[in-house]
Amino acid sequence: MTTSHATPYFVGDHLALDFLNSRVAPANAPAGESFDWLGNGAQLLDWLVDSGAVDVSVARQFRGKKDTVAGLDEVARQARELRDWLADFLGRHAGRRLGRDVAAELAPLNKLLARDDTYRAIEAATSGASALDWCQRRRWTPERLLMPIAEAIGDLVCRCDFRLVRTCEGADCILMFYDRTKAHARRWCSMALCGNRAKAAAHRARHRLKEDRPPAR
Ligand SMILES: [Zn+2]
Q: Does domain 15-99+151-212 match CATH 1.10.3300?
């Protein structure tokens, strides 16, 4: 498994769902195999940067350092575990409005969030109208690389409408997305991947129907 032969999917329209989509089934994978972008620590770092979850300067602190390799691999294992937990949670709740009763189920996420260590800092602004920026900083450790993901999951469950969290309608497609379209009519992970495939299948079906029809008298 290498990171080079496939680019990750960022079709979720929400970081938490992109995180869920960081593993795909054979139907989605380029060569028809299942694929995991969080297979080890180095892959996790790549995915975190590509998804915009962490800044490239943060990743640089950990990348290629011998003493952090084992730690990062362990964090990647924790990330996969978190993703399994999220998949299970979404499997039970996506498509329906969340009730207060789910709070108890979110205890593992709260446990993870409690390990964070952030602080505020004031810095000279590099752009924009104001001279100073009110920045949020984190005391980074390998384990805290999961915090942007945990925060994104928190945002998804607290601020998003779970009725709009959906799985792509493509046959065998497991990619999920947050439907931000005005009409809430999004059906596919992407038109290029599944939309066109479904359109072609519908076209073929219509064609067959026409051929099966007895000739008009
Ligand atoms: Zn799809």
A: yes
